[in-house]
Design goal:
The protein is an alpha+beta fold. It has four helices and 13 strands. A six-stranded mixed sheet has the order 3-6-8-9-10-11.
Length: 185
C-alpha cells in the first residue's frame, strides 16, 4: 500500500468518527480539521459562487465538498468552492484529481488564516490548480493567484471589497466584489 493510500485510509477513518459539519484535509503528515463556517463566510462564498455559475464552461459544475487529491505529492485539500468536470463528480467517492479542477476558492477563517494564506497557497500550486481565489473578510480583500509552477503561483492580483476583479479563462468575466461583507472588528 502506498504512502498516499495509507494516509487516505487514515483520513477516511477520522471522517467516520468526526462530528457533523467537520471537514478533514491533509497535506503530507498534517491533518487540518474545520468546523462549520460562520454566516459571513457562507454569505461571501455564495456571492462569489453565483457569479462564477454564469461563466462556468460547459461540462463543469460547482462543488463545495470535493476533496482535490494529488497522490504523487500526498496531498488532499477540500476548497470551499471549486469547479470540476461533471464526469468526475459522477464517480463514486469524494476525491477528485486536483488537475481536473478549474479553480479553488477559499474564504479565510478568522481563527486560522495561515491555512489559506500559507498552507493552501503552497498546496494548490503544487497540485497545479490553475486559479486560486482567496476572499479575506478580515482585511476586506480578494486575491487571485494564477500560473502555478512547482510550489508557488507566479501571478498575483489583489483587490479590495467594493472593487471588481477580472477572472481569466476559462471563466472570463469581471467578478463584482461590492456585496462582500467583512468580519466584525
Amino acid at each position: 500500500m502506498s504512502f498516499y493510500e495509507r494516509h487516505r485510509d487514515f483520513v477516511e477513518a477520522v471522517l467516520r468518527t468526526a462530528p457533523d459539519g467537520v471537514r478533514v484535509e491533509w497535506s503530507g503528515d498534517t491533518l487540518v480539521m474545520h468546523d462549520t463556517p460562520s454566516g459571513i463566510h457562507q454569505l461571501n462564498l455564495v456571492l462569489i459562487q453565483r457569479q462564477f455559475e454564469h461563466h462556468a464552461p460547459d461540462g463543469y459544475m460547482v462543488s463545495g465538498y470535493s476533496a482535490l487529491t494529488t497522490p504523487d505529492v500526498s496531498k488532499e485539500r477540500t476548497p470551499d468552492l471549486t469547479y470540476l468536470p461533471i464526469a468526475s463528480l459522477a464517480r463514486e467517492g469524494n476525491a477528485t484529481l486536483a488537475e481536473e479542477a478549474l479553480v479553488a476558492v477559499e474564504v479565510v477563517s478568522p481563527s486560522n488564516p495561515g491555512n489559506d494564506w500559507v498552507d493552501k497557497l503552497r498546496d494548490y500550486a503544487v497540485m497545479r490548480v490553475p486559479l486560486y481565489l482567496i476572499v479575506d473578510p478580515r482585511e476586506g480583500t480578494v486575491t487571485l493567484f494564477s500560473e502555478p509552477n512547482h510550489d508557488r503561483y507566479h501571478v498575483r492580483h489583489d483587490r479590495k471589497f467594493g472593487d471588481g476583479m477580472r477572472i481569466p479563462e476559462p471563466f472570463d468575466f469581471d467578478l463584482d466584489l461590492s456585496g462582500l461583507v467583512r468580519y466584525p472588528d
